[in-house]
Amino acid sequence: MADIGHPTLKQLNYLQAVIKAGSFRGASQKLGVSQPTITSQIAALEEALGMTLLERSRSGTIPTAAGRDLIPHITNIETEVNAIREQARFASTGGSGVHRMGVPPTLGPYFLPEVLSEVHAADPTLRLYVREATPRELENGLIDGRYDLILTTMPVEIGGLVVEPLFGEPFKLCAPPDHPLVGKGMVNASAIRGERLLAIEERHRLFEQMQAMANQFGAHLMRDYEGTSLDTVRQMIGTGFGLAFLPALYIRSEIDPRNDVTVLELSETPSDRDVVLAWRPTAAKRQLYRSLASQMRRVCREKLSECLHVAAPQSAGGSAAAD
């Protein structure tokens, strides 16, 4: 098979113009380029691709089947090139730009709606492209460049990252409405010894914290009934499968409005899960990310202080890596 050459953007644009105009003369007038130039460039394109792209006649020019098949691809290329130009223009005017942020599914959906509108109001040029993955996947994606920054939970297992603390998120014990402990006020921690505790799947870092809480209070972790998400854990609580420790932001977002499960007051509170913003120390926009962390803490203090323990800013020397 003969090697296929590399068409240029200019050649593809000329081909598209001829097809749209229906003639070389029309394309020449539209583009403000001489007809011989367009003719030679399309000839070079046909030679590079090894196929005839246009049928020429006295009545005009139409694409061959091969030329017609190229039209949607040329359109896609044109769209992407325009997007690159727009992004470059946007960046050159001092805008913060588009940044890929990874978040865990057990945290992002319940935290980001509280802060993103405030972040956008503070910096309308900052655009966060948010994707969900487990914390371990997020850390690997940050290292290999799939993410620019990540919202994740401690401990961060990959060294060398800048880690900026945001807040501690408490856990609360949730029970089905008909559980014997419901309605008895403050529940002594010893009362849940031997109780069945539900947990999320092991692939989530949250599983390890749920397992630690089961061990702390002497409860039985039900490994046969792990939930694929916090919603499935909540649904299993509601149908009487057992109790579960759930994060405060999830409770605020999904349980308080529904009342399908009951939140118990426990005499002894488990440790918070510590939430951080992390990025590579070499990130070009590292100062922007530190500012973003500061904004997030401010929003937490103003809107979420009743359910979160907002962290103090981390000095660069105290981060996983200085930036």
Automatic annotation (TrEMBL):
Database matches in SUPFAM superfamilies: Periplasmic binding protein-like II (SSF53850), Winged helix' DNA-binding domain (SSF46785)
Record carries keyword Heme: no
Pfam family membership, one: LysR_substrate
Keyword terms: Activator, DNA-binding, Transcription, Transcription regulation
Domain HTH lysR-type: 7-64
Protein origin, superkingdom: Bacteria
InterPro entries associated with the record: LysR_HTH_N (IPR000847), LysR_subst-bd (IPR005119), WH-like_DNA-bd_sf (IPR036388), WH_DNA-bd_sf (IPR036390)
Alphabetized PROSITE patterns for the sequence: HTH_LYSR (PS50931)
PANTHER family referenced in this protein's UniProt entry, alphabetically: HYDROGEN PEROXIDE-INDUCIBLE GENES ACTIVATOR, TRANSCRIPTIONAL DUAL REGULATOR HCAR-RELATED
Family the UniProt entry places it in: Belongs to the LysR transcriptional regulatory family.
Protein name (database record): LysR substrate-binding domain-containing protein
Organism: Kordiimonas lipolytica
